[in-house]
Amino acid sequence: MRMGLGLSVGLMLAGGLVVSRGSAQVVGGGGPASTDCWITFDSQPAPNYPTLRPTGVRCADNDATCGDANAALGYCQFAVQMTFNSSTGFPGCSPAGFPSDGFIIPYSGPSNDDHPKYIADFEPLVQFASDQLLLTPTDIDRMSGFKNVVIPLDIRFSSSGPSFKTTTVTLQPTLCQAALLTSGKCPPGVPKDADKVKLTCTAPVDAMSGQKISPCSGIASTFQQIQEHIFDRKCTTMATCHGSTDSLHDLCLKPTCGARSAYSDLVNATPHSFAAATDGLKRVDPTNPENSLLFHKIKGGTRLNSPGEGIGAYGLRMPYNNPAAGRGRPRLTAGEIRLINDWILAGAPQTGFVASSGACQ
Description:
By secondary structure, the protein is of the alpha+beta class. It is 14% helix and 20% strand. The longest helix is centred in the middle third of the chain and has 13 residues, at 222-234.
């Protein structure tokens, strides 16, 4: 949700002073007072949690008092601005010079887009740092401009149905006065500013009843639930995943990819995997999960592997999991896998609801 403008109350943030600047507040983000001005942050709304000593931003989805700019249920949108060498509001800290390779936001950059902790919305801040560095002590108040960070609420699947879970994204950059080590850390003893700003989205609440709003609100079919609660959140967030409109991309899992869609690319579709196609599998074979490549890809296990060869006959487990590269996103939950299994068993209908403990009804 877009953070509200016009907030200028001075607050103390652990490890750094919060002072007013224009439309929002400036946050040091942590670290010694002598270096805390090297990276600072503005946000909309200003830090508000915990109440007495704010260390981050916490807002509920669809909360008008936080100025929600994302109308979609289950998504918060915050705006964050990063500044190098803030010139005011940080007593005891002086602007300094920095090398071109002294900055990092962990798990960011194109080479990390398959990492479980990768946040695509941090990439504009990484690009800003790349454009700005080198810096001298006279290069002050170098601002990135406000960049939106969208936080999809996690969803818990249970026997009583799905529910939204509080979800936090942490921006944790480091700016170092020497080139970073290959580990991404600042060399020992070299001055640095290592910061942490937490952005937290909580479940939406009905203003009249005070009750939490269910993820089932607005869901008209089990397939729509799978699309919005699983595919959109875990399978299509990167162009390198299943969100491409390129006709050469193996599988679209978005509602639309040009003339294609997740439903048309899945149900009764022949896999591009030679091994799976040779074995007679469909991407989704209605009523038959065991003959559906999608089910094996999300469940993992021996059916993905060529016996004795140690390689993936049907490819890697999805969401992306590549042990050989040391990269992998978390497996779908048991409730998510059960929902997809039950949908396939029921004939993989595009409309209507199927019987499942995790399904909306």
